[in-house]
């Protein structure tokens, strides 16, 4: 019982111990904040990385795509296991392209990724409709122009006559070369948000909020140039902007342009062909089995089957590695706190030498004396860890407010909102991580108190009593 | 087991309770050996108040520490009744010091973080586990408070050592030493740091415990005046019992059984 009484009294009366508590507390709080913020970023990034990609995809090896996506989807629907796992499928045609438009009479050309989709199908697969900017389109994804866009299009200055890509009928054989064009109404497109906007660092509100400048309005025309399938000959067409796609993942928002699948197939003279089939699963945990089944089903076809995690494997692995290394580095902070405990405990043992002699004269065993200091370390770890957890959770919960205050006080942007397309610092508090950090901190506190505790326990009672 | 008194021609002689047998002790420091005790034979009888006197460095404190199991002799043996205790395992020695022996020191050695009553409770705290304590706490606290009352510190229960005078601290230390009803009290220069009046009070208290409660007291002192009030004085000189001057003053008859009916500190055997 004396161990408990003395541990508690030492904690209450020794201000040096407070230093240990504070160092453990700061270490734990830092780890929790960094972990939660990194967790938030990585969860958001993971979400975004997954965003456009479906759970599983069947992809062609090259831009020529593969034929008969409808037949393949039918095969999947007929397979009992796959039919039970697959929620939705969407054939997609993806190709690189150049986008041209004029902004303030200045021609601008951007490299983009052109994606042909059926908006309704693609929406069912997920990661598309929810990112559309127009709220009406979120519920009913379509390439239809709204009234304002139509008006703007009608009023727009007609561009110089362009050469139009000929659109062939399905029963006609593909021409050897791009043929003469004939005029047609431009097809609409959904543009990545960052293609049509840029963050203007000069245009700030009084409270420091950044604003985006829009370079292309719905109803504006752009020209997309890509290549045809067989001959790799350049093909191009006019498109009119219907809406924006804003996933908050700059890689997607600055590159992706969605157009109707059938039009892109015609433009590229690859009717009936797609480059991938996007598949959404009921339960992603089943993905490895589904992939194995699909691989088996299409083993003779020139396609590759993978999950979105396989496809983004390198990025996901990089995030994991980064988080792991950061955690190790940060744990060294608690290690430093551990050395603090070692130093301070050694001082306390020195200071308490006589008390140790007294306790031994009263019949306290070596192990009992050791337990006092081990218990003391444990208590410091628990109190420091508990306070650190409270502090860490408080900071994490209010990180955006703290960031605002700091930014205002220092005049420095701590979280530049023009780098990320989200306005708040994302956080993700993982109870398991908080627990592990606490367990680690307590373990380090106990570990570093072993040596001083051992020294105390081995003190000779007579020498301890005579110590001055 | 020795519990009774032995009839001799000179009266009733109590049995020896603690005995040192040819005890030797050498300290080594920085390669230099100092032989402090060079073969000491010495015993303390049950209910006796014995003082060990001698010059500084004569080995009197060392002898006290060896007999109280705070240290181990290099050679020889220490006997508690008929049980040899110098070679007991650490755990057994801890138990002896907790339950059978009480110690007081020149510098009181109270735990500064604890109040007077908590200091008195300390041996009981050492003896009890966390689980036993709730059951023992009430009785132990009552006894600790009674002991403080007995040593005249009923009003100081909740004071910390730094708030007390030397005499008060030593009285608290005495209360702590007898908390677990030990058979033997070891006192290492108990009045060495006190003024005359406080020293006399402490001696009176020890004498009362010895007379009234039958507590065996072994005291080391260099103060002959204090030593003269004890039953027997043993002189140590150069690590040996001085044979020329033994016994110095058989003030009280060894045939004296404890005066009062209170036998709570009487020798309880060593089983």
Gist of the model:
The complex is a heterodimer of chains A (468) and B (271). Helices cover 52% and strands 20% of the residues of chain A. Chain A is an alpha+beta fold and 468 residues long.
Q: What can you tell me about this protein's structure?
A:
The complex is a heterodimer of chains A (468) and B (271). Chain A has helices spanning 2-13, 15-52, 69-78, 80-85, 119-125, 135-139, 147-155, 193-196, 250-253, 261-267, 287-297, 308-311, 313-351, 353-361, 366-397, 399-410, 431-457, 461-466, and strands at 56-60, 66-67, 86-103, 106-117, 187-192, 197-204, 210-214, 221-227, 234-245, 256-260, 273-274, 276-281, 303-307. By secondary structure, chain A is an alpha+beta fold. The longest helix of chain A is centred in the last third of the chain and has 39 residues, at 313-351. Chain B has a domain at 6-100 and 182-245: Rossmann fold, CATH 3.40.50.300. Chain B is built from seven helices and twelve strands. In chain B, a hairpin with a 2-residue loop joins strand 6 and strand 7. At the A-B interface, helix 1, helix 14 and helix 18 of A face helix 2 and helix 3 of B.
Outline the secondary-structure elements.
The complex is a heterodimer of chains A (468) and B (271).
Chain A: H1 2-13, H2 15-52, E1 56-60, E2 66-67, H3 69-78, H4 80-85, E3 86-103, E4 106-117, H5 119-125, H6 135-139, H7 147-155, E5 187-192, H8 193-196, E6 197-204, E7 210-214, E8 221-227, E9 234-245, H9 250-253, E10 256-260, H10 261-267, E11 273-274, E12 276-281, H11 287-297, E13 303-307, H12 308-311, H13 313-351, H14 353-361, H15 366-397, H16 399-410, H17 431-457, H18 461-466
Chain B: E1 6-8, E2 11-13, E3 16-29, E4 32-45, E5 49-54, H1 60-67, E6 75-80, E7 83-84, H2 90-99, E8 101-104, H3 116-127, H4 133-150, H5 166-177, E9 184-188, H6 196-213, E10 216-220, H7 224-227, E11 232-237, E12 240-241
Parallel strand pairs in B: 5-10, 5-11, 8-9, 9-10
Antiparallel strand pairs in B: 1-2, 3-4, 3-6, 6-7, 11-12
Helix pairs in contact in B: 3-4, 3-5, 4-5, 5-6
């Amino acid at each position: 019982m004396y161990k408990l009484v003395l541990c508690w009294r030492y904690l209450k009366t020794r201000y040096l111990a407070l230093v240990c508590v504070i160092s453990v507390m700061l270490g734990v709080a830092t780890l929790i904040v960094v972990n939660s913020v990194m967790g938030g970023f990585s969860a958001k990034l993971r979400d975004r990385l997954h965003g456009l990609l479906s759970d599983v995809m069947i992809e062609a090896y090259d831009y020529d795509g593969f034929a008969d996506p409808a037949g393949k989807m039918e095969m999947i629907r007929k397979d009992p296991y796959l039919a039970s796992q697959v929620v939705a499928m969407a054939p997609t045609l993806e190709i690189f392209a150049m986008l041209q438009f004029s902004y303030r009479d200045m021609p601008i050309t951007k490299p983009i990724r052109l994606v042909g989709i059926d908006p309704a199908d693609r929406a069912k697969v997920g990661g598309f409709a929810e990112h559309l900017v127009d709220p009406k389109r979120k519920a009913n994804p379509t390439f239809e122009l709204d009234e304002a866009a139509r008006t703007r299009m009608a009023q727009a200055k007609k561009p110089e006559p362009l050469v139009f890509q000929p659109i062939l009928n399905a029963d006609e054989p593909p021409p050897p070369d791009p043929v003469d064009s004939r005029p047609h109404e431009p097809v609409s497109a959904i543009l990545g948000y960052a293609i049509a906007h840029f963050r203007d660092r000069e245009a700030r509100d009084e409270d420091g909020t950044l604003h985006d400048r829009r370079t292309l309005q719905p109803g504006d025309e752009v020209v997309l140039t890509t290549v045809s399938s067989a001959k790799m000959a350049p093909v191009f067409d006019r498109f009119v902007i219907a809406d924006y796609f804003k996933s908050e993942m700059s890689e997607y928002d600055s590159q992706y342009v969605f157009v109707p699948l059938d039009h892109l197939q015609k433009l590229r003279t690859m009717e009936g062909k797609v480059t991938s089939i996007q598949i959404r699963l009921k339960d992603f945990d089943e993905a490895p089995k589904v992939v194995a089944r699909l691989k088996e089903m299409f083993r003779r076809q020139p396609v590759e089957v993978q999950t979105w995690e396989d496809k983004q494997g390198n990025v996901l692995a990089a995030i994991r590695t980064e988080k792991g290394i950061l955690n190790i580095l940060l744990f060294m902070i608690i290690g430093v706190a551990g050395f603090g405990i070692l130093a301070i405990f050694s001082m306390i043992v020195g200071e308490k030498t006589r008390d140790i002699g007294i306790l031994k004269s009263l019949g306290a065993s070596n192990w009992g004396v050791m337990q006092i200091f081990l218990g003391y370390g444990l208590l410091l770890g628990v109190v420091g860890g508990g306070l650190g957890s409270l502090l860490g959770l408080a900071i994490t919960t209010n990180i955006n407010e703290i960031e605002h205050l700091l930014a205002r006080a220092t005049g420095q942007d701590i979280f530049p909102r023009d780098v990320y397309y989200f306005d708040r610092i994302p956080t993700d508090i993982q109870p398991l991580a908080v627990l592990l950090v606490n367990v680690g901190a307590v373990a380090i506190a106990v570990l570093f108190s072993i040596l001083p505790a051992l020294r105390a326990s081995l003190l000779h009672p007579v020498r301890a009593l005579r110590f001055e | 087991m020795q519990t009774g008194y032995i009839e001799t021609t000179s009266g009733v002689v109590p049995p020896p309770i603690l005995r040192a047998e040819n005890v030797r002790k050498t300290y080594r420091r920085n390669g230099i050996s100092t032989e402090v005790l060079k073969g000491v034979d010495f015993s303390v009888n049950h209910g006796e108040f014995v003082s060990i006197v001698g010059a500084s460095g004569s080995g009197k404190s060392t002898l006290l520490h060896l007999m109280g199991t705070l240290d181990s002799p290099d050679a020889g043996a220490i006997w508690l009744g008929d049980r040899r205790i110098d070679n007991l395992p650490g755990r057994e020695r801890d138990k002896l010091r907790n339950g059978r022996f009480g110690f007081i020191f020149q510098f009181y050695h109270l735990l500064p973080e604890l109040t007077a009553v908590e200091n008195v409770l300390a041996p009981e705290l050492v003896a009890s586990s966390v689980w036993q304590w709730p059951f023992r706490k009430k009785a132990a606290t009552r006894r600790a408070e009674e002991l403080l009352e007995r040593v005249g510190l009923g009003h100081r229960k909740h004071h910390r050592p730094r708030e007390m005078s030397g005499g008060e601290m030593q009285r608290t230390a005495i209360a702590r030493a007898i908390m677990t009803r030990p058979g033997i009290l070891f006192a290492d220069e108990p009045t060495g740091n006190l003024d005359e009046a406080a020293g006399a009070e402490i001696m009176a208290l020890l004498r009362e415990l010895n007379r009234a409660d039958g507590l065996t007291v072994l005291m080391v002192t260099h103060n002959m005046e204090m030593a003269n009030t004890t039953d027997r004085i043993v002189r140590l000189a150069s690590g040996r019992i001085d044979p020329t001057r033994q016994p110095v003053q058989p003030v009280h008859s060894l045939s004296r059984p404890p005066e009062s009916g209170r036998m709570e500190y009487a020798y309880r055997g060593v089983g």
